[in-house]
Write a structure and sequence with these properties.
Elements: H1 3-7, E1 11-14, H2 21-51, H3 58-85, E2 91-93, H4 94-127, H5 132-135, H6 138-163, E3 172-173, H7 180-184, H8 192-225, H9 230-258, H10 267-291, H11 294-317
Parallel strand pairs: 1-3
Antiparallel strand pairs: 1-2
Length: 318
């Protein structure tokens, strides 16, 4: 096939996760619940941070941006996947496929940079507590968040342009979404250059933030060990535990998907890992940050108390 065939390709067929109808219905129910938890949980995090002035700190600012990114990431793939579970023909228009790959890759890349910025924030908070507010001022936080999103979108734009300029041999994607590696398998030319670009992108987008996280936490651990009181060490560790949990999940799945040797990977394994990263991780992020965070839980209890009081007053007045 020539390049002109790729230009006029109108749609792609997604094989999805299963061809069994009963399995697809069960997966639809499961992922619908997970999707609702993801959207509502992350929206609740943003709402709580917005409503409580005590949460207007750099750490919670970055957490609200992370929740926004998770909502966008989930919406880029999950709604279409839910529709396809109940559809006989699992097709996606060409331009929708391009947009899906661009948005999901941009959000995923931005999340890695954000986790690096959040690690730097925790480093300053633990290692330089007296200068924390002076260093992590509003302008720097906004610049870091903007830079993380900008870098994510630039990486995604570069990858999308390179991938969709390639001639494609067929339009059947062995995946539940238009994922980068799955689309590359459709090409009918040598993709050695693209593999090099994926590797370079992986180093810049995944490994650089990962090294920043490791460096930050090495300094944090060293600082915590110098704290004399056990209570102080425990408090310092609690401020980092939630972030470290999320970092382990995100970087672990990404390194497994994009940075291991291609000979050791398979389409089915990549689908499972991508599913974990697209559905499970965005759902767990608000749960981890809320359940392990006393300030967020305290704000949630106060909000629920106010709503309960207003409901009681309305009932009495009626």
């Amino acid at each position: 096939m020539g390049r002109e065939n790729q230009t006029w390709m109108s749609e792609f067929i997604l094989l999805g996760l299963s061809r069994c109808w009963n399995t697809q219905v069960s997966l639809f129910v499961l992922f619908l619940v997970m999707y609702l938890v993801t959207v509502l949980g992350n929206f609740l995090i943003i709402l709580l941070i917005r409503l409580d002035s005590r949460l207007h700190t750099p750490m919670y600012f970055f957490l609200s941006v992370l929740s926004f990114v998770d909502i966008c990431y989930a919406n880029s793939t999950v709604p279409q996947m839910l529709v396809h579970f109940l559809s006989a023909r699992k097709s996606i228009p060409f331009h929708s496929c391009v947009l899906q790959l661009f948005i999901s890759l941009a959000m995923g890349s931005s999340e890695f940079f954000l986790l690096g910025a959040m690690a730097y924030d925790r480093y300053v908070a633990v290692c330089h507590p007296l200068h924390y507010t002076a260093i992590m001022h509003g302008g720097l936080c906004l610049a870091l968040a903007t830079g993380c999103l900008g870098a994510g979108f630039m990486n995604s734009l570069m990858q999308a342009v390179i991938i969709f300029q390639l001639p494609l041999c067929h339009n059947v994607i062995n995946h539940f979404a238009c994922e980068m590696l799955a689309v590359l398998r459709l090409t009918c030319v040598d993709i050695s250059f693209n593999k090099v670009m994926v590797a370079i992108s992986g180093v810049l987008v995944i490994m650089l933030p990962c090294f920043l996280v490791l460096f930050s936490y090495a300094r944090i651990v060293a600082a915590i060990l110098h704290i004399r009181s056990a209570q102080g060490r425990c408090k310092a560790f609690e401020t980092c535990a939630s972030h470290l949990t999320v970092v382990s999940m995100c970087f672990g799945t990404a390194i497994f998907t994009y940075l291991r040797p291609s000979a050791g990977s398979s389409a089915e394994q990549e689908k499972m890992v991508a599913l974990f990263y697209a559905v499970v991780t965005p759902m767990l992020n608000p749960l981890i940050y809320s359940l392990r965070n006393k300030e967020v839980m305290s704000t949630l209890r106060r909000l629920l108390g106010k709503l309960s009081e207003k409901s009681r007053l309305l009932t009495v007045s009626c």
